[in-house]
Design brief:
Elements: H1 3-7, E1 25-28, H2 37-47, E2 50-52, E3 63-65, H3 74-87, H4 98-105, E4 110-115, H5 122-131, E5 138-140, H6 146-153, E6 160-164, H7 167-176, E7 181-184, E8 202-203, H8 207-219
Parallel strand pairs: 1-4, 1-6, 4-5, 6-7, 7-8
Antiparallel strand pairs: 2-3
Helix pairs in contact: 4-8, 6-7
Bound molecules: magnesium ion (MG).
Magnesium ion binds near residues 33, 165 and 166.
Length: about 220
């Protein structure tokens, strides 16, 4: 088992992440939240002769060879996805307003970046954050994010918030860490109307508005 797979079952101590636990905790995703993953991935795919057609809120089902009506099989798409993370994930453009919002939130909360990404991407993802002025701890997770969020938030008596684009992660947090405020954010403007939402979580696609709502949830 690789170190990355190991992490799926391991909740780090806040202390080991350099956090005190004496302020509220904000746990935030990268792809389609802090960063515009899809825009970058589609540029990478184009170089490899594959079109990303924004037709539904999906990944592999949106990948087509030029002129073809059927998406490429996932067995062909997944190696491209893995290779993108291995070679190009530092090219992801930040979501407008996202890092400014993190800076604002860091004045009253401790922040953890929690990302599910394939392969050994930790160093590249950390370099990306550093390049954009973000020094908050990064955890590369496998599987649903509820268990690790529950493990992290249990280490502080303060309020917490969780931000992700993906409903299964938000639902998992609702089940495993129900006291944590949950926000759904979709970075890509083309995907916004296609993304499924749920009454269980607040959906806010504008980072200014999102930061204000997170602050409010941490104070309430
Ligand atoms: Mg994401």
């Amino acid at each position: 088992m690789s170190a990355a797979q190991n992490r799926a079952h391991f909740t780090p101590r806040l202390m080991d992440l350099g956090l005190s636990g004496d302020r509220p905790l904000v746990i935030v995703d990268v792809d389609e939240v802090l960063g515009q993953f899809v825009r970058s991935f589609e540029r990478y795919l184009a170089i490899h002769g594959v079109e990303f057609r924004v037709e539904r809120y999906a990944l592999f089902q949106n990948m087509f060879r030029k002129g073809e009506a059927k998406p490429i099989p996932e067995a062909e798409g997944r190696p491209l996805y893995d290779d993108f993370f291995r070679t190009c994930c530092e090219s992801i453009e930040p979501t407008p307003g996202a890092f400014e919002a993190l800076e604002r939130l860091a004045q009253r909360a401790e922040i953890i970046v929690l990302s599910n990404a394939p392969g050994e991407v930790e160093a590249a993802r950390r370099a990306w954050l550093t390049r954009h002025g973000v020094q908050h701890p990064l955890i590369i997770n496998r599987g649903l994010k509820g268990p690790i969020t529950a493990g992290l938030t249990a280490q502080t008596p303060h309020r917490s918030a969780f931000i992700d684009d993906t409903l299964p992660h938000l639902d998992s947090v609702a089940e495993q860490a129900p006291a944590t405020a949950r926000f759904q954010h979709i970075a890509d403007v083309r995907l916004r109307p296609l993304a499924p939402t749920s009454d269980r979580h607040r959906r806010i696609d504008d980072w200014d508005e999102l930061a204000a709502a997170i602050e409010e949830s941490l104070l309430a």
